[in-house]
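Researcher: Good morning. I'm working through a list of sequences from a screen, and I'd like to move beyond sequence-only analysis. For each chain I'm collecting a predicted structure so we can compare shapes side by side. This is the next one on the list. No need for commentary yet; just the structure.
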Amino acid sequence: MTQKNRVYRILEMIDLLRNRHRKWKVRELAEHFGVTSRTIYRDLDKMEEMRIPIYSDEKEHTFSILEDFYFKAPEMNEREALALLLVGQAFREEIFPYQEELDTAISKILNSLPKSLKRVIDSSGGIVYQYGGFVDLKCYKEYIFKIEEAIKNRKILSINYYSLSSEHSSMRKVAPYSIAYKNGACYLIAYCHNRREIRLFRVDRIENLEISDEIYREDRDFNIDEYLKNTWGIERSDREFRVVLVFKGKAARLVEEMVWHPSQQIIKMKNGGHRFEVTTGSMTEIKSWILGYGSEVEVIRPPELKEEIRKEIEKMREIYL
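Model: Good morning. Structure tokens for this chain:
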């Protein structure tokens, strides 16, 4: 179960439990959402942590939310409000399909703050957030919304997908598990019935998408964090490599300044260079990253990656020499 699926379920459960014309039993909720009773109890505990007043009728063994419950404006300090504003700036571009809704939500929250705090926020125009290239998703919002609907209702999708590696399109029947926004693009993570495995599909390469009436069974073993843990960017592999690089000169200082991957280790060397180690399955993406540092980086291992870099350099020599 992905975190996003759980959020959808809890939000729908709040609506169901606020209905004063019906009270729900745990078993009924479990059947409604297609999950176990234990999962529903965990969701109820999470809702209580969110300070949602849940009423339990011990005689009827039902649950409901008190009728006078409503979401209150949050209490925020100056730094929390600035952090929220920065998040809004971070998603100003079309990489985020809910930009208008985000702007509206942030405006509602900020407008509910005390005047003294709003003055601080209004005077914070010096904060700027910028990032690199991204896919313009304006034309793909409908697809993203359909994917999210299919995830919520566990519906099979039929997609016509253009593969960059094979350079042709094919029809795919997929069970959508999650959406990931990484490296300036939006990706659908889904079980592909054609390939019989979980695959990544870049949304802007989907040429057509339809939601079917077929419901898929939830894969309880799937975990989005576990699935993406060995990626460098978005590319993943079932095989992991321990990549060891040596940086020197300006590149050594630049690499040290940033966190590139959760598994990275940087060791300062006596000659002023830096030994950089990371575990990943993303050979193609990390190869492109390495090439960006030119002669100021050397691949120590794995030998497969070292050979790939050597071949790429030879191709470049043919172009420039």
